Amino acid sequence: MIPEPQKTYLLEPPIALGTSAEDFVLAGAQSMKFTLRGARATRGFDFLLDVVRLRERDGGIKQILDFLGCRVAPESRNSQFEKTIPNSQEIMRIEFMAPHELKRRKDFRAEISRRLHARECFGGSIALHECDSYKLTGVLPNGQPASATLRVTRPTALVLLKLLALDDRYRNIRGRAEAEHDREEAQTHAADVIAIMTASLDTDAFRRTFLNQLQTQPEVETRIKNILLEYFRADTAPGMLLYEEALRRNAPADSKTRVQLRDELNRAFRMITQLLPLGDQPRSAR
User: Fold this and answer.
1) pTM to 2 decimals?
2) Rounded to 5 degrees, what are φ and ψ at 182?
3) Residue 83: partners with Cβ closer than 8 Å, 6 or more residues away
4) Intervals of CATH 3.30.460 along the chain
5) Taking CA 239 as the corner, what is the angle to CA 237 and CA 240, rounded to the nearest 5 degrees?
6) Under CATH, what is the fold of the domain 6-153?
7) Are 207 and 214 within 8 A, CB to CB?
């Protein structure tokens, strides 16, 4: 689950937002903590927003964020907010995302209100629908006990988003200046995909649910299947190489580690290929 001090500051927005919080779905690395023990640390919170319902509610979200001390992050164009955690050097980041279909015609954002936007998220409508509710209990920054119901993206939808993010980062769509950072992010997304799938107790059920969620969005289904084929069809494909790089980053270079690394790569490859479209048999070169 979410550790402190992040949990304290995650509780603030849903309590302050009231019924509008029902239209927020936690995604990204923080949502992994509801599936995995020991999920990697992160200071950011990514929320998919039900933009249509939020427009109807007109709940004054930007004013509430202002009241909570959340400031617009530089160059985010009202889609990302930051808050300094008192008595620490940590900054909590909140980023808002919206289904790709709702973005402006010539922009990467969807408008919720004049001063509040959300970054487009391809596949976001699936992840918005594929979620579960969790009760989060803790204390507010003033020490008052609090609890809130939080909607969290399901593991199968999270793998979908991670595959899309892996593809974006690997292709370095942000340009040469971000190449090194994008490569590292692609490694992280590949490792996250493997970690989420590893946590599943029933791989066959995971595969069925993963593929079923794509059926309502043919465009997303086509892209996801192409990504799986491009990145994981062979054990020397880019996705597996990225996962290997992620494993090597902190591993000591001794013979025992090399054997463990080989075994883990073989295991991960056998597992991830279960998501490939039927008829596309993997090619092993190890």
Assistant:
1) 0.91
2) -65, -35
3) 9, 68, 69, 70, 71, 91, 92, 94
4) 6-153
5) 70
6) Beta Polymerase; domain 2 (3.30.460)
7) no
